[in-house]
């Protein structure tokens, strides 16, 4: 009995200094638990980890998915090819950088490390919840006036300032995401967040036709992947019948859909929808891909 009592006092004493002895624990801590950011931007996710003395950590990686063998490192995930880098910015501290963010990158990211034997593994829970959003203008029709709202799928940090554009020209800045006014149904309206003016929302217009390209010129490296972003508007009583990208007009025929051109087979992907987004992705860029790319749509109205 005396031995057990003495032992319990010793345990209580050691527990009181666990902050000092924390290196004997397996743990992962994250700088932040959730992030909301824009598509096409770059984000950094940071973590630090501890492990018991006597072990040597040989493998560290971030992941979002599992396969039959366990977690899949983002560097081995085809969806992130060429877009992720790992960096060690301090002792036992690692930062994950993801470039050219896509809305499909929205997921919970976790950090994992293993020892030299491969038998001891630890994953930091719950990880970092990343939400990737674009901007969308929503129109609410009222009795006296209409309201435009610059909408996102997650809450942006730091109380952003919204910039409104009319027919491509800057109209106003406001800390409110809503813009009440008497809007013309033949003008187009779009929005952006200050500091991210290059990430413009698709334009909305009740009775006009337009195609807006996010960038007028793009310089990219051979072998890389590029997204050519654009948005389009058309009268609300019309429906999209055909939409495609082209680089030149065929004699006597007109524009030719790139998806039917043999040299672009397996080389392009249309990421747009039949509402407002008309983004084109070109993979494994070649020097001969240098051209003027244009978007065309035809409605059934």
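^ structure tokens above, recovered residues below v
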């Amino acid at each position: 009995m005396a031995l057990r009592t003495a032992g319990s006092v010793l345990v209580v004493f050691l527990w009181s200094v666990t902050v000092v002895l924390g290196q004997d624990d397996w743990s992962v801590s994250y700088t932040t638990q959730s992030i909301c950011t824009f598509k096409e931007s770059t984000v950094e996710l940071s973590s630090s980890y501890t492990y018991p003395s006597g072990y040597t950590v040989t493998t560290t990686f971030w992941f979002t998915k599992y396969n039959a063998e366990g977690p899949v490192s983002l560097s081995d995930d085809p969806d992130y090819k060429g877009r992720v880098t790992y960096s060690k910015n301090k002792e036992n501290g690692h930062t994950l950088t993801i470039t050219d963010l896509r809305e499909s990158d929205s997921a919970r990211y976790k950090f994992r490390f293993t020892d030299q034997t491969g038998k001891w593994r630890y994953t930091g829970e719950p990880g970092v919840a990343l939400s990737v959003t674009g901007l969308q203008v929503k129109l609410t029709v009222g009795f006296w006036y209409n309201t435009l709202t610059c909408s996102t799928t997650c809450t942006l940090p730091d109380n952003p300032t919204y910039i409104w554009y009319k027919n491509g020209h800057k109209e106003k800045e406001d800390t409110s995401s809503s813009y009440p006014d008497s809007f013309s149904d033949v003008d187009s309206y779009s929005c952006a967040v200050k500091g991210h003016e290059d990430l413009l929302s698709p334009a909305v217009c009740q009775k006009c036709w337009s195609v807006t390209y996010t960038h007028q010129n793009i310089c990219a490296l051979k072998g890389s992947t590029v997204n050519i972003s654009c948005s389009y508007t058309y009268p609300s009583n019309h429906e999209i019948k055909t939409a495609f990208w082209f680089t030149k007009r065929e004699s006597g025929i007109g524009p030719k859909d790139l998806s039917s051109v043999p040299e672009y087979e397996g080389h392009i992907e249309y990421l747009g929808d039949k509402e407002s987004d008309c983004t084109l992705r070109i993979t494994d860029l070649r020097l001969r891909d240098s051209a003027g790319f244009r978007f065309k749509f035809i409605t059934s109205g």
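The chain has three domains: 25-132, 134-207, 209-301.
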